[in-house]
């Protein structure tokens, strides 16, 4: 094994931050403030808590099975091939959307470059949608992302560590300079109504719709790199915790800065009336800091670029893992012997990313699809973590979480609420995309003569029932979430919390011991030995 190429804790945190701080910070503060006013600051705290509680479950599983593309395999260990396939497919749909969303963000900022020599870039965007000329630039960026990952993990980590330092520095510089130019704490308001100008529901909506869940989503980079991390027993949990905390502090500071530096004149028509193309760069120009706006236009190229590069690795590993689950062609699971990277999977991911961006040509559309698909995949995490405590009591747990039985159901309920906050009809569209994978699953089950299909379906009815419930609830729920208002806000939140808890309990009781579970036991024994050696 290439021990010299193992990823250190510093490199892991930089890689995760390189994934976390992408286009979300460039658009998120403006999108959230436009929806919820000064209360948008709470949206970031809620979003961070939701993703943090979900990540908590994966720390135990990730150290039990430190393997490449692990996020796409865990559900299969506890509930068989069908649940494993749905979780992996939903996760992969979200990953394959991240590569084009970052490329779109780069091109969108390029299209508003203010310099005379850059007029040729202005045709890349029309009414918030990428044009055909812009699409070719997006394709070119996706190809560059892929090539940077194509050769080795070593190139990837050197490149992203460098970019990540710039990516952390740039938001902090923005916070300091904008605050020094104008600080109006009165913008937070002096009453309940001025802090929540549009009520409390938009604070929840912003969490899913303004790209906040999406901005915190990338903690799984640390999980998917499992077998390539030095001292995984210590570094997986620490890497996730540090990267989520650092990015959370940066996001909250940015949102607060956006709220407190907004000139009173710009708020004449309320927070809904804020109309920016490149929010922080526009704000810098408004406050007369032109050189900062130039840096921000540069960063709008670098930040999404770093995230896109990191996610080519995660996406390819997810495909590689699905091939290992025997539900995709074997060729996708081949590692290049010299570089240890799944090259065929990388090329396929790049092509499908191009198809995805050709269908959904705007940042906001891609962001909403992505958040919901991610959350559907994450729902299986808490259920798997607790299920493995029941059916896999003898498994070696390098990290045994103390409060798993409390945090797991809470994280399941929070993820359910966040799916609901994504609003109708996004819910049904994303669940539809996830169900598109069913024919592929059934084809491979047919090739294996439906050996364990019946058993796999029996273990997965809870998730199928859950997806039907959340879709119906999204349709009949509160008007602030685009529902028919048959169940009013905030009672809709209570219904989702109670019923989701029921599905969580059903999910835990549905765990089964399969051939995949037995393979997982072997992997657990082998890797735990290596962990102790480490």
Automatic annotation (TrEMBL):
It is found in: Membrane. The keyword Lipoprotein does not apply. It is a multi-pass membrane protein. Gene3D superfamilies: Amino acid/polyamine transporter I. GO terms for cellular component: membrane. The chain crosses the membrane at residues 7-27, 39-59, 80-104, 124-150, 162-183, 195-216, 236-254, 301-323, 369-391, 403-422, 428-444, 456-477, 489-508. Keywords: Membrane, Transmembrane, Transmembrane helix. GO terms for molecular function: transmembrane transporter activity. InterPro entries: AA/rel_permease1 (IPR002293), AA_Transporter_AGT (IPR052962). This is Amino acid permease. It comes from Loigolactobacillus bifermentans DSM 20003.
